[in-house]
């Protein structure tokens, strides 16, 4: 349906609704910046970075992507992620491509509705990021999934958010082997990816599950912090 609409309707900026482009120059300038360390209430025990605050054009982009089926914006978000990864490498927070194979692990997706509309948005952002990264040594590993019963976290309090995800993240065993390089070689960087960090509950649970499986996590990169 969206593809059909795209043929009839002109593009609209995913950040400010200006007509003409999927992502206008002004939004490109202001929406995302360099990764900034966050201190979520729930500490996953690894660094958590966000590219901006959850407001303005970045917030619009995320809402459009996950709630309004604007899958064309995954490439925009993916480019912001790539820029963030490059900065983290320059700052020595992540090993450079020559030294470490980057394994990007999307946080498990809560948006059943978005998935029905054409895919898991975080996995899609990760896929775009990997395609744009100049190095060959990078891949997406969709290693995490939710068990049944996880609600959309919008509108939940901090303790409800925690209860919502506690014990509900699982490893997808068929992907676990792809994370084995992080066990056998120090030369791989496992980076969790999510759109918005709020309480940090989901990142904490995700890191815990990966650690239990023996996977070393370098950090978590998010588009925005709430
Ligand atoms: Zn715009």
TrEMBL record:
Source species, domain of life: Bacteria
InterPro entries named in the record: ComF/GntX_DNA_util-trans, PRTase-like, PRTase_dom
A Gene Ontology molecular function term of the record: glycosyltransferase activity
Annotated keywords: Glycosyltransferase, Transferase
Gene3D superfamilies: 3.40.50.2020
Family: Belongs to the ComF/GntX family.
PANTHER family per UniProt: DNA UTILIZATION PROTEIN YHGH
Protein name: Putative amidophosphoribosyltransferase
